[in-house]
Specification:
Blueprint: H1 2-8, H2 12-22, H3 28-35, H4 50-58, H5 63-78
Helix pairs in contact: 1-2, 2-5, 4-5
């Protein structure tokens, strides 16, 4: 999961923290859908912001993925 978030463009420290919080709360299918966002990364823009990543997650149209990932993002960016 961590590698997939990094591949999507999130900074490694944020990706690691978020992966720990998400892996037990989402199904394997949902985790694979999140990892599919790695293919959307634009290598010319550098690190993806968490806000932009959450925007991309909305396109998956899965409220549970969005809720779990949003909570993980908040915890990992604001509480660190």
């Amino acid at each position: 999961m961590r590698a997939g978030l990094i591949d999507a463009g999130l900074p490694p420290s944020t990706a690691g923290c978020m992966a720990e919080r998400m892996v037990d709360r989402l199904s394997l299918g949902q985790l694979r859908r999140v990892q599919s966002l790695a293919s959307l990364r634009n290598s010319h823009i550098g690190d993806l912001t968490v806000d932009r990543f959450l925007y991309k997650l909305r396109a998956l149209e899965d409220p549970e993925i969005l809720a779990v990932t949003s909570k993980a993002a908040v915890a990992c960016t604001l509480l660190r």
